[in-house]
Amino acid sequence: MAAGFGRGGEVMVPSQTFCATIHAIRAAGGVPRFADIDPDTQCVTPETIDAAITVKTRAVLPVFYGGRAVDLTELRLADRDITVVEDAAHAFGSHHRHGRRVGATGQLTCFSFGPIKNITSIEGGAVVARNRREAELLRAMRTLGIRAGQLTRLRE
């Protein structure tokens, strides 16, 4: 939803991923479109993403399988009006090949704190937003769209 791809927009996702990746795309009104993975890394590559992009593609959701950061900067997706949403559920503390930490790339980045992740709090997660608008939307979404003033009124 924060990526703003709109209902019916295609979201590129690895052909091998956990079902929650697809659930998130569908919950936001998107249509998953699968890209092949590299058999050695189990991750998409710039080449497999580029081969699968269509005119309907609005976002790319690379999954950093096993903590391996996927660097898609050479594709210049922003020039094509395609948003990158990094699924860094297993990549907290990882680096991209250019040395920048995952979550510090200027892309939307999602972390998970579930019981099988490298940072855990039993459940939960975090999203690194790119701007104030996205951050405010994400804060509202974490409480099912109820804003702070509304919460106060509900308690009365």
For this entry, give a set of tags.
single chain, 156 residues, alpha/beta, Aspartate Aminotransferase, domain 2, 6-stranded mixed β-sheet, 22% helix, 18% strand
Helix-strand blueprint:
Elements: E1 10-14, H1 19-27, E2 31-35, H2 46-52, E3 57-60, E4 83-87, E5 108-112, E6 125-128, H3 132-142, H4 148-155
Describe the structure.
The protein is of the alpha/beta class and 156 residues long. The chain has one domain: 3-Layer(aba) Sandwich (Aspartate Aminotransferase, domain 2). Helices cover 22% and strands 18% of the residues. It has helices at 19-27, 46-52, 132-142, 148-155, and strands spanning 10-14, 31-35, 57-60, 83-87, 108-112, 125-128. A 6-stranded mixed beta sheet has the order 2-1-3-4-5-6.
Do you know the CATH architecture? 3-Layer(aba) Sandwich
CATH topology description: Aspartate Aminotransferase, domain 2
Strand residue content:
15-25%
How far apart are the first and last residues' alpha carbons, in Å?
31 Å
Number of domains: 1
Number of helices: 4
Mean pLDDT: 85
- Global morphology: globular
Give the beta-strand count. 6
Helix and strand succession? EHEHEEEEHH
CATH homologous group name = Type I PLP-dependent aspartate aminotransferase-like (Major domain)
Strand order of the largest sheet: 2-1-3-4-5-6
Give a quick rundown of the structure.
This protein has helices at 19-27, 46-52, 132-142, 148-155; strands at residues 10-14, 31-35, 57-60, 83-87, 108-112, 125-128. It is of the alpha/beta class and 156 residues long.
